[in-house]
User: Fold these one by one.
Assistant:
Number 1:
Amino acid sequence: MKVEDSIALFLDYIATERRLSALTVRTYHDALMEFHKYLGNNHIELIEEIDSKAVREWQATLMEAGIVPRTVMKKISALKSWHKFLRKQGLAKGDIFAKVSTMKIDKKLPVFYKENEVSKLYTSETFPDTFEGERDKLLLRTLYETGMRRAEIAGLTEHNIDLSAMTIKVLGKRNKQRIIPIENELGQNIERYLALKKEISPDNESLFVTPKGKSLSTAQIYAIVKKYMSALSNADKISPHVFRHTFATGMLNEGANIDAVKELLGHSSLAATEIYTHVTREHLKDAYKHAHPRANGENNK
């Protein structure tokens, strides 16, 4: 079978049967087409012609081009998933990745907003007294208090909100639903915002809309976060996802059970949540360093 045909088959599978997000499918597509181009330059057109050497040499080519190890391994991971699919379909034999070494990647701790930075989201002067101001206030507070992903918050509808139960129903990755509880103040924010939204966009069921009544896109949500948090925070990175890190880190720092945090975040495995325990330990070490009388090697006298 031709490599190009096998890639098309795999992409159709992950899009229609596994129902992965469009962004994930695009990530796989880009990595596989990049590999396909490399194979073509080396006169490899058929699946059976690909071996471990070809993969290792492509990996080396990527490193020589200055691509960081984390990105290289993401591309290799896409290739592994594709080739595993081909083996299950009987289109390829043998695991050619068994002899491809795994590169060592330094784990980066998640960036998060500081408590004094997010507290400014709750002061009256942060947001203008307009529909957009009320919407932006609710958007940022919801991100901070629920830990939702950008795509999840963009997909919220009015029907996802249950103010009687004080919960939000979230549709996460792979169409997995979860229920996130909310506190009274956020519920009141939602109620005020919905009253304003009813005047602007009575027919659009999306929760977050523009002044013209159109649903907010993920790009617009990113821009709103960038607009406010760039002025409020000194974090190395400003994005909606940093609110997710802030939510998880804050929950663990306050003693929340890691399994509960996992469920609230919608993680499929505990391993994805455990990275935040490292942030929590760093937070504790930092507090010790600044507060303990012997932390800097000083002797008590």
Number 2:
Amino acid sequence: MNDTAQGSSPGPLTWLLTGHKAGDNTQVTALADALGWPYTVKCFRYRPYELLTNRLLGITLAGLDQASSSELSPPWPALVITAGRRNEPVARWIRRQSGGKTRLVHVGRPWAPLDCFDLIVTTPQYFLPDRHNILKNSLPLHGVTNECLDKAAAVWEPKLAHLPRPYIAVLIGGDSGPFVYTGEKGRHLGQLINRLADSGGGSLLVTGSARTSETVMAALQQELTVPNTVYQWSEDRAANPYPGYLALADQLVVSGESMSMLAEAGFTGKPLYIYDPADPEPWWRYARNYQFKPLSHRLAMRLAPRRMHRDVGNIQRQLVSSGRAVWLGQSFPQGGDMELSDDVGRAADRVRALFSRS
């Protein structure tokens, strides 16, 4: 695989460790871009048994498919930014090769002992303790900037000019952890957003994601009577209106299981409605929740140590309690400015401090 260098300002030699999860890669890259230092992207693929070798050996490359991954060779970096369980043993291996000189920054929730990292950038969905090397942000890191929104607006404004204002952008995720999306939930979401747009005389700009099923999108569309445009996700980035919807929306609706969408929508500072994808009845009443992914998630949350737990509801509730969002179906308060936090900037400052202290 080819390594990619970016950035312009001088700084410590920096490697980004990336893998198969786009959300992790986005956060790692967003932090590196905020630093403004040149960096090299290292892309990794892992063997099916990597969980076993990583848990048993800790610092190892045994779970790495080295033939399909970026090369690891000196000069060793002064800084490694990583995310995800699979990359942790590689990051620690790199520091060992550097004689302990490499500083490790982990985004999210690490599986390794917390003192293995110089800095952990985390969010309320994880239950990490208060420690000197842990930064707790309100939302995940993201790569949306005012500049990219301005560019997207210029591209998409003429394409949406036939639709009446106000624009309500609807950003839909899909199955994740304990949440299972169904046609019934698609219809419910469709009814709520249709009512919201109808009350203001506006239009719906609806987009799915890679996790959004055709069943959910079809059920949602059947409920729409107001002017709308609906995009079913594809890998063609040029056709994806998501950045344009963020830029041009007057209000935003986000399905609550998607932390990345909540973070990107929250960055705009526009009125934000959260759709709660949770089941209205106890989970065990629904046969769909006995599928492998939702059931394994619930078992893990029941049996794992507390710091390995994950509850995205913590982020949703914090957004609502702070006044930055309301639940879909409720009225957004008029007046009053929303307090926006620069989570990416805070994280970048903490990384710079690792080197200013030295």
